[in-house]
Design a protein that fits this description.
It is a single chain. The chain is α+β, with helices and mostly antiparallel strands. The protein has one domain (2-102). The protein is built from 4 helices and 5 strands; from the N terminus they run ββααβααββ. The longest helix has 21 residues, at 51-71.
Length: 117
Amino acid sequence: MYFVDRTAAVLKPTAAFLDWLKSSDDDLPDLSLSQLRSNCSVFLLPQFDEPEQAVAYFDERFHEIFTAELAGWTTDEKLWPKRDLETFWRFFELEIHDSVLDLEENELMLSPVMPAG
């Protein structure tokens, strides 16, 4: 077991996100907030001394994160809500974890989620 020099942040959708999701997709199966929150995105951030620093880090990077979260449900940008910081924090809650452990001895594989640019 190895400590990883990162902070983990779990991005959890809120009821506002679920409301948007239901309004943007008529074919969406009946989905509860607890179901939506049962498999959330986890981000590895630089290590921070205080949780507020991790939140500030998200403030700086919210646009790319928000875009990726929305695109995971629909790529039709006409259906997307306004992508500003206020809407982002209305749509998501952040859970910060400062102990990240790797149970595997294999090296981590790094591959970009979205192309740069």
